[in-house]
Specification:
The protein is built from 2 helices and 14 strands; from the N terminus they run βββββββαββββαβββ. The protein has 260 residues and is mainly β. The protein has one domain. The strands form 2 sheets. A 10-stranded mixed sheet has the order 8-9-10-11-7-6-5-1-14-13. A 4-stranded mixed sheet has the order 2-12-4-3. The longest helix has 14 residues. The radius of gyration is 17 Å and the shape is globular.
Length: 260
């Protein structure tokens, strides 16, 4: 496994409540007019039951011996040959997302706080689809292995200055007081056979929500792998990426790489 930390100079919020929040570049900017409701851990109202036959899982639901990389709010299964990139907001040094690359395809993962009594993926999916369409792309709401998902065509600017489109799958899962979102890009976005490894990895993610009070849609805290992670080494900064819209999930910066 290879892990890296990537610093970014620009970001667009996937979820907004008034002002702009930090989030990775693949995020689609949306407006949310309803007031934020703080989810107090001491509320008498019980969490709505989350019925699922597969992952991602809540930390309380997992008791197995699958090796996972501890990234704070999420635990990511370790897969031979995968590359892990941690995305960091350059202005705040906050880790905003984790991206896993396998065989040329990528899965970007973020976890968010959610209300106790209801899931938010349905409304988030609609907001993403609307924003992608407004920015010149398209999005189809389709059934997938994790329920409803979006198959989007994101507008991009080619090195020649032309406008093209890049396919991306937006998948999501509602859990007890959390929501986890994944963005699949590369060949896995359109090739079911290539998507299998990333889908299995997404299904094996464990979310560690914690008990602290957080408003719905608040980004759960991620962190870099610990200093004891084997084979940690510096990587040269990659070549500059071509100009693309702010929600492009493939923009990269300086990295720290771990190879397993």
């Amino acid at each position: 496994m290879r892990a890296s930390a990537s610093k970014r100079s620009e970001h667009v919020a996937l979820f907004r409540r008034g002002g702009k929040d930090s989030a990775p570049d693949d995020a689609v900017e949306t407006e949310v007019d309803e007031p934020a409701v703080v989810d107090e851990p001491g509320d008498d109202l019980p969490s709505a039951p989350v019925e699922r036959t597969g992952g991602p899982w809540d930390a309380s639901q997992v008791d197995d011996d699958v090796p996972r990389v501890d990234l704070g709010a999420i635990l990511v299964p370790g897969v031979q040959g995968m590359e892990l990139r941690m995305e960091i907001d350059k202005a705040t040094d906050v880790v905003s997302a984790a991206s896993i690359l396998i065989d040329g395809s990528s899965l970007q993962v973020q976890a968010f706080a959610a209300p106790r009594t209801e899931g938010i993926w349905d409304e988030i999916r609609a907001e993403i689809a609307e924003s992608v369409t407004q920015q010149g792309g398209s999005a189809d709401d389709l059934p997938g292995p994790f329920g409803r998902e979006l198959l989007a065509r994101l507008p991009v600017r080619t090195p020649e200055g032309r406008t093209g489109h890049r396919p991306a799958r937006f998948v999501g899962a509602d859990g007890p007081r959390w929501f986890v979102r994944g963005v699949i890009t590369g060949r896995a976005a359109v090739d079911p056979a290539a998507a299998t490894a990333l889908e299995q990895l997404f299904a094996g993610i464990v979310v560690v929500r914690g008990t602290d009070a957080r408003p719905p849609r608040d980004l759960l805290t991620l962190r870099l792998p610990g200093p004891g992670t084997p084979n940690l080494q510096a990587a040269a900064p990659p070549d500059a990426a071509p100009a693309v819209p702010d929600f492009d999930p493939l923009r990269r910066g300086p990295e720290i790489t771990e190879i397993r």
